[in-house]
Structures are given as C-alpha cells and as structure tokens.
Fold this protein.
Amino acid sequence: MEDQMKETPQAMGPGGTDRPKVRISIQDLYREEIFTDMRVGAIRQLTPVKSNGEFDKNRKILFIGQSSLVTQHGPLPIQFPIEAKNLQQALEKFPETMELFVDNLIEQAKEMQRQEQSRIIVPGANITDPKIILK
C-alpha cells in the first residue's frame, strides 16, 4: 500500500486550472521496508507509524509479497497481501500465498476470456459500446 491520498475541495492549480487539492492522510502513515532474496521476490513490510514517526501499536503491520511471472509477452509484476504476524511468518507463507494469488489471477483471466467469447456484436449497433453479453 502506498501512502493513501485524500482529495479535498477544488483548489486553483498552476496555470489557473481547477484540480483537487491532495493531502496525505496522517492517520494512515506507514514506514516501508523491503526484504528480498534478489532472485524470486520481495516482501514489503509496512509498519504503521504516527505522524511523528513513532510506531502506532493500534494498527497491525502489513506484509505485501512481490514477484514477477514470466509470460509470452515478458515479465508480469504481481503483488499480493500476506497475512502474517511477523517477517518470519511472511517468509514462510510467501510461496503458498503467491501460488493461491496466481491461481486466482488465472481463473479471473479465464472468466474474462469466456465473457469476451460469449459477447455478441449486433451489426449496425453502436460500435463504441458493443456490450450485449449472453449469460
């Protein structure tokens, strides 16, 4: 998770354009550390902190696994949450969690492919929005 940003009411941006004013949420700050074996992947440890940088013991530490899949179109970066209480547990859960994530990703891709194949394009219909889908 990267620092979450909140939109606030419109403000005048550079050049007189209206843009939402962006602020970092000081209640949702995390310190990020990355642990990697430089081969298979990495684990990002996101430690909750207060705005003064101290550890926020009211929120839990988050772990995010990162790796790449080799595809016919080149490497595909992936990242997935790992439910763990500490780094050691995150390291142990990394392979299984990644495998489950990849399996889910493949199922989603197959479902999208099935939906795309069952779509009917009606001649003369609005080509910019051909969304007739059989279910």
Summary: The mean pLDDT is 85. The helical segments are 87-117. The first helix runs from residue 87 to 117. The two ends are 35 Å apart (CA to CA).
